[in-house]
Design goal:
Layout: H1 3-10, H2 16-19, H3 25-28, E1 33-41, H4 64-75, E2 80-85, H5 94-99, H6 102-111, E3 115-116, H7 126-133, E4 140-141, E5 146-147, E6 161-165, E7 168-176, H8 185-188, E8 192-193, H9 196-210, E9 215-221, H10 233-239, E10 245-247, E11 259-262, E12 268-272, E13 280-289, E14 295-303
Parallel strand pairs: 1-2, 2-3, 3-4, 7-9, 9-10, 10-12
Antiparallel strand pairs: 1-13, 5-8, 6-7, 11-12, 13-14
Length: 308
């Protein structure tokens, strides 16, 4: 059986457990297949250096230099890549206390991040403080359910993002957690929190139907899931119809492989989150058959200590 016929006969759809056993190298060589790798982090919390070698649980893990080696290695594979962050870039080490976020933004630029969203701790230096550091960021900040139109962020953030790679369109929107009761009002000022479920439905419909995106990503700082009725990534997955992937943050949930939830139409939505402090980096490999709606996806987490 030749490679092209193998692809057609497998009928590769978004079944991540199945794809963990699929011989993916046979896909890479097929001309009709477009391969995109998403790399992602969340809740890095100003962790620039690895954890110290002090006998603690996380000793030697994380660190921007090691993450850069992993990112460069993945980019050297040759496929198209995107690098995303799901918020809480700031707060957690003296780097933030001393430099207010400048170091973090400069390093993320050096690593080649494409997009990040805003976490609650990114307001810890005030909304003006966050905005001040964006001059050091050569990447875009996306926020969809924070109305910042009456703030200094009105000209420095966007509410969605679309990429087009060789005829394949990827759309992204971003959701943040409710600020009231979590962040002092004098830090976020006139930022208005909008219902994340309604916002998700609005933007996924716009991206899928109005812009004809082949794949829709939600970059979320809502948290993976909760016991009560609080909106989470799981709730967003269950309540939406066109979102394919939710890259999450806030709850510091270590997921060594993505979780799957069904959307309102019974179709799978992938949810992934990689803990905190840059200990892990997420990797989602997407495969699209050009001229077809069929796609395959595979996810994993990569240790920033060992690279495996």
């Amino acid at each position: 059986m030749n490679r092209r016929r193998f692809i057609r006969n497998t009928g590769y759809t978004a079944a991540i457990g199945y794809l963990n056993t699929l011989p993916l190298p046979q896909i890479w060589d097929v001309e009709e297949i477009f391969h995109l790798t998403l790399m992602h982090t969340n809740d890095v919390h100003s962790r620039v250096d690895p954890f110290p070698m002090d006998g603690s649980r996380n000793e030697g893990q994380g660190g921007v230099a090691k993450r850069k080696l992993l990112i460069d290695k993945i980019r050297a594979e040759g496929q198209q890549t995107l690098l995303l962050d799901a918020g809480d870039i700031f707060q957690g080490t003296p780097y933030f206390n001393l430099f207010g976020g400048e170091i973090e933004m400069k390093l993320m630029t050096e690593l080649g991040y494409d997009v990040a969203t805003i976490g609650n701790h990114d307001f810890d230096g005030g909304i003006e403080g966050f905005n001040k550091q964006l001059k050091h960021a050569d990447f875009q900040i996306v926020t969809s359910n924070y109305d910042v139109s009456n703030t200094v962020l009105s000209e420095s953030t966007i509410d969605h993002k679309i990429w087009e790679f060789d005829g394949i369109k990827i759309g992204l929107y971003a959701l943040g957690i409710e600020l009231d009761g979590m962040v002092p009002k004098d830090l976020y000022l006139e930022t208005q929190y909008m219902d994340p479920i309604k916002t998700a439905k609005k933007y996924e419909k716009m991206l899928k139907q109005d812009h004809d995106c082949d794949y829709v990503i939600c970059l979320s700082h809502l948290g993976y899931k909760y016991k009560g009725d609080k909106v989470s990534d799981v709730v967003i997955a269950n309540e939406t119809s066109h979102t394919d992937l939710i890259i999450g943050g806030h709850t510091h949930t270590f997921m060594y492989e993505p979780h799957i939830e069904n959307n309102k139409n019974g179709r799978p939505v992938i949810i992934n989150q990689v803990g905190f402090a840059g200990i892990l980096m997420g990797r989602i490999d997407l495969y699209f058959e050009r001229g077809s709606k069929r796609k395959a996806q595979k996810g994993t987490a990569v240790s920033v200590k060992t690279g495996r």
